[in-house]
Fold this protein.
Amino acid sequence: MNSLIYIIRFVWRIRYWLIIGPLLVALLVYFNMGRRPSRYTVTSTVYTGIVSGYDINTVAGTTHQDWNIINNAMDNLMNIITSEATLHDVSMRLYAQDLVHGEEEKDNIYILASNYRSLLRRTPPDVKALIDRNSESATLHNLLEYEQADRDNHVYGIFRWKHLHYSYAALSQSKVKRLTHSDMLEISYTNDDPGITYNTLVLLNDEFVKQYKLLRFGEINNVIAYFEAELARVGRELRSVEDSLTLYNVENRVINYGEQTKHIAALERDFELRFQDILLSRDGSQQLVETIEGKIEGLKTFRNNALFVQKLQEISNLYSRIAASETFEADSVQRQNPQTDHLKQLLDLQSKELAGTISQISSQQYTKEGLSTNSIVQQWLDAVLLNAKSKAELKVMIERKRELDKQYGHFSPIGSTLKRKERNIGFLEQSYLSILQALNEARLRQKGLQMSSATLKVINQPVLPISSEPTKRKLMVVAAALVSAFFILAFFMLLEMLDRTLRNKVRAERITGGKVLGAFPARPGLGARRYEKQYQQIATRYLSNVVLDYFCLGGSHILNVLSTESGDGKSFLASRLAKQMAQTGIKVRYITWNKDFDIDSKEFLLAGSLADFVRTGEDELSLSDADVIIVEYPPLAKCSVPAALLREAALNLMVTRANRTWKDTDQLLYDRVCELSGATPLYLYLNEAAREDVESFTGLLPPYTRMRKLAYKIYQFGFTATED
């Protein structure tokens, strides 16, 4: 109960602070919010298509969704919107737009006239020169060209200073949130200019889409560009190698190396067979000629005949020509070649002529064996012709052999070179196809990104605000008053906890650890000044009654009045107490240290009782005759009191002012007196206390008005009491 009363008294004591302080703060907030400009909010909604969008994977039948990837993608989108790069582009475009379209005397959908005038005042002349009233894009280009990383560059600083409309600090106040777990992003922005607020959000949506596409397509475009460059490079190398192979084939007369080498091999095989046949034919014909000539000796004479030799040479030449034609030309060509037919006709004609010539010059009719010469000559002639034919063909075959050997020497190294070139071409073709496949995959990825990016669409377009947001003026005023009251209360509570001013009974007992016997009122305010004497009388009477309770029959009737330091009012209280008791008929002996005894004397310092150092004058009441002895000792800070004197008394009263600080030295002196007092009670008495604190001991003090009685009744928690 005492704690509750203490809290109530504490609050009552600071009541004016709790009333005036929050009131002043509330008025300050009220007028300050009244001077603040109106606020406008613009909102838009963007559909992303990340969750439910249509892309290449959807076409391919892949419907699985990774929510971690989706959430990361949504976070990336929100970060793109609030990124410094995006906001910088918005700032520059918005700045250029307002410079071009602003009007000094008229509000428009871009900027208020007051804000435009303020903008022009802050814009230096060299920046004003960059404004092209006919082209917003040209103005933007000029501003970007003018912008340099310099603290003195106005365009550079417009985004980095604390500008209300164009700075990063202002634009970063835009709010982005995802609507539950949907594809929707809600973007909102608040500022004091409706046109700037509206256009800021319009430009932010536009720049957001640009930045999003740039980031999404930037990497894949680089990949595509790389593959295209590689594809072109490998293509050039492949064409170069193919051209080199073609030139090599042309230079070496290679059409189909495999077929050509097969053909040469077949020719070689056929040549060997034919060559052997020709050799056998030559040898056989030569032996036959020699045999026949051995039978007919006259036949040798034909070899000396000029006409025979001529005809035989012509026939041999024809055989050589025919053999050459049949050997070096294909069968189909042979069949279609009229020259070969003509040579064969000439050969038949020459053969007949030679046979006719043989017949004419033949002189013998029969051989040694009696055979007909005509038949033998014809056989000889056939053998001679066959031999001539074999020789002619052998000559041609030998020439053909050289040609075949030459072809073999020509085509043998070509094979390895062709394999090397074809292997290089194959490698380049594989590389080309691999790069082409990677390029197609990258383009497919790009197309998928295009399909998903195409779904990035502003669903709810920003709308130019007409009315400002409703202010929370009343709420802010109330909140400011409550918060200020709370802080004032907390501040004074902190002071109350740290403050070592005694002030009242509860605090004094908490700080000192002792007991408070009573309190004497301080001088009241002007309203209660006329009741000062009554207050003092009531307080003195209360003190007298309490002190007398400690005087018992047959015991000591000594009251020691103490203080830790001077100025606490113990002399005043002791004298008033003595007068009060004397008025009731009690014999009181009042002894004071600065009048009745010497504190520096041996008798006092070593005293065992009052009689050791107190002397009674002729006009003074003796110690034995006195009913009550009130002894005022010097401040304990100047002189200590012997323990015997403290224990001799019936009551030790420590007087201290309620409005002073209880120091550590005071506590040490009090604890020492408490220890030396032994069984003698030691109490504190508060001087110069507040009226409310005095009433804690004396009860209600004047004036006894109805309102004061009611207040005192409530103060004492007598809510249902019926006494007057």
Q: What stands out?
A: Residues 542 and 698 are 7 Å apart (CA to CA). The mean pLDDT is 81.
